[in-house]
């Protein structure tokens, strides 16, 4: 086995190191939604993780400084939407600070438990919030799946190297 090639010295832990490493990690793209006191809220998330099959649970991270956090902190239910490669603009809208995320051209409807559901996604879930775990400047939300639909058409949207992209054949 060849010896490892020498490279630059390791970097100490920092927010920049974390961002640099995770730019190399391709992640699926989801939008999390909730009913807020003054209307629907939502944000783009690449931190979606399957946690448990029985009971069916997932997790995602949300920054406590995010505009959606107060609604996520106070709600019992959230919507989780898996985006398709045709939804890069939708992902960008929900990632952009100050955007009118639920205005035209975003197509959505009220779903079970009053959760805003986005149209045209690959799959969606409505989940009951089980816990909000402190994690630095974020909270990890653990949520149990209540109902969903995995039947949307298309291929998944990915986030890699700081941009939305599609799978290559």
Structural overview:
The protein has helices spanning 15-23, 69-74, 88-95; strands at residues 27-28, 30-36, 39-45, 49-53, 56-63, 77-82, 108-110, 116-118, 123-135, 138-149, 157-160, 163-166. The strands form 3 sheets. It has a 7-stranded antiparallel sheet with strand order 3-2-6-9-10-5-4. A 3-stranded antiparallel sheet has the order 1-11-12, covered by helices on one side. Strands 7-8 form a two-stranded antiparallel sheet. With 169 residues, it is mainly beta. It contains 3 helices and 12 strands. The model has no long low-confidence stretch (mean pLDDT 94). The protein has a domain at 22-77 and 100-150: Electron Transport, Fmn-binding Protein, Chain A (Pnp Oxidase, Chain A, Roll).
Keywords:
seven-stranded antiparallel beta sheet, Pnp Oxidase, Chain A, mainly beta, three-stranded antiparallel beta sheet, 169 residues, 12 strands
Concise description?
This protein is mainly beta and 169 residues long.
Q: How are the SSEs ordered, and which strands pair?
A:
Elements: H1 15-23, E1 27-28, E2 30-36, E3 39-45, E4 49-53, E5 56-63, H2 69-74, E6 77-82, H3 88-95, E7 108-110, E8 116-118, E9 123-135, E10 138-149, E11 157-160, E12 163-166
Antiparallel strand pairs: 1-11, 2-3, 2-6, 4-5, 5-10, 6-9, 7-8, 9-10, 11-12
**What is the CATH class designation of the domain at 22-77 and 100-150?**
Mainly Beta
The main β sheet shows up as: 7 strands, antiparallel
Integer average pLDDT:
94
Relevant CATH superfamily of the domain at 22-77 and 100-150: Electron Transport, Fmn-binding Protein, Chain A
CATH architecture of the domain at 22-77 and 100-150: Roll
Q: How many β-strands, per DSSP?
A: 12
**SSE topology string:** HEEEEEHEHEEEEEE
Structural class by sheet pairing and helices: mainly beta
Widest beta sheet: strand line-up: 3-2-6-9-10-5-4
Inertia-based shape: globular
Helix content: 10-25%
CATH topology of the domain at 22-77 and 100-150: Pnp Oxidase, Chain A
Number of helices: 3
Beta-strand content: 35-45%
End-to-end Cα distance = 32 Å
Q: Return Rg in Å.
A: 17 Å
Uncertain stretches of 5 or more adjacent residues? none
